[in-house]
Amino acid sequence: MDGKIIHDPIHGSMKIKGVILDLVKTPEFQRLRSIRQLGLAYLVYPGANHSRFEHSLGAYNIARRLAQEIELDKDEKTLLEMGALLHDIGHGPFSHTFEQIYKHYVKEYDHMHLGQNIILGKIDIIDGEIESREFIPEIIESYGYSPKEVADLILGKYEKRYLGQMLHGDVDVDQIDYLMRDAHYTGVAHGIIDIERLLKVLKIHEGQLVVDEKGIEAVEGMMVARALMYSRVYFHHTVKIAEGMLTRALEFALEEGHLWDFWKMTDCRVFVELEDLEGYPGEIARRIKYRDIYKAAVLASADELSAEEKKELLSAYRNVKRRQEIERNLADAVGAKEGEVILEFSIADLMLSEPRLKATEINVLLHTGELQPLTKVTPLANALKRRQTPRWAVLIASPAKYVNKVREIWKKVIFS
Questions:
Q1: Sign of CA pseudo-dihedral 171, 174, 179, 184
Q2: How many other CB atoms are found less than 10 A from the CB of residue 275?
């Protein structure tokens, strides 16, 4: 038989062959089996143990179906499929949990640029020798494609705008898969979207991806799913507290000179390495292992903060050192040890008085032949983009015994 059949709980049986099968066999892609799609969300949603591996296969499968519906030519179809398959290849352990650490400690990398460098063969994320190993750029080239084109597509820099939109846009294959998959594995029914309809109403018009006017409801349904999954799952405060604790444990380890190649590791390896360290990192790893999570002392919405307070917190959001300093001051004020009071933010946009709506927006092709931005055609889209942010802007957590004290003094300590 030509190729392989993979059985997926979301999309059923999918067949992979040729360049896709060869890329799936690489150690870089297999590594994604050991990286959870939703970081520490399994502490709240016990079923959320799915990996970046299966999500990447799912994104490929949707890309394949979309390419057929839109009737892309063979080269564009293969390029889109490779981009969808490899879009998360640079993800480090626990997916998005350590994003801030990349920016501050490992300045030259984030998961997007790591992915680019892996596809271009500039960096090897695999430790140790593997016999008869094929490398991603060589595989891509052996089928007559350019690794640079695949990397550009993943970074949203590809010259053909519509192909980039299919991977990073208001309605894209990555998002469709993760919403369906995350809803399935968390058991949260909000992520259900009408994929059959969505794939039928997308088309290319004047060099861009547009949605047919008849398909507005399918897009609205997807936006509802996304907005609800954000507040219900992605920014669930307990998940955020656990991720904050793990981030602090890694920061402590890095400050002491350990785990500097954490970005190459898998979830399990980071956990074991942290647990083996003395002091705070080991203690935190054990707390997370047995779900002994800090408690939320403060969950403040953007409305509860003055413009000045938002500005102060925004500087802490952008600057790890500033955030660490505030955390130390809070810990001192309540008699806690360093690392026992953590300050988390939802997203920076929330800190601003008006959430900035995402700039990239899909256009709607009206029956008259003219194009209109989605938010002009449906007021629901505007409201949903605002709704995508969770109810809290600022979260402060600590062990239970300090919660009341933190609640009393946090504003005075941070803003005076």
A1: positive
A2: 16
The two three-digit tokens of residue 371, written as one number: 């194009």
Burial of 106 (0-12, 13-18, 19+ CB in 10 A): middle
Domain 8-233 is found in CATH 1.10.3210.10: yes
pLDDT tens digits along 148-203: 999 999 998 899 999 999 998 889 999 999 999 999 999 998 777 999 999 999 99
State the number of CA atoms in the 13 A half-sphere of 212 facing the CB. Answer: 10
Select from 226, 188, 194 the least CA-distant residue to 388.
Answer: 226
pTM higher than 0.70, yes or no?
A: yes
Q: Look at residue 113 in the predicted model and tell me its pLDDT.
A: 87
- Are 135 and 25 in contact, with CB atoms under 8 Å apart? no
Distance separating alpha carbons of residues 203 and 208, to the nearest angstrom: 8
By the 8 A CB rule, do 111 and 35 touch?
no
CA distances from 184 to 53, 179, 187, 228 (A): 16, 8, 5, 14
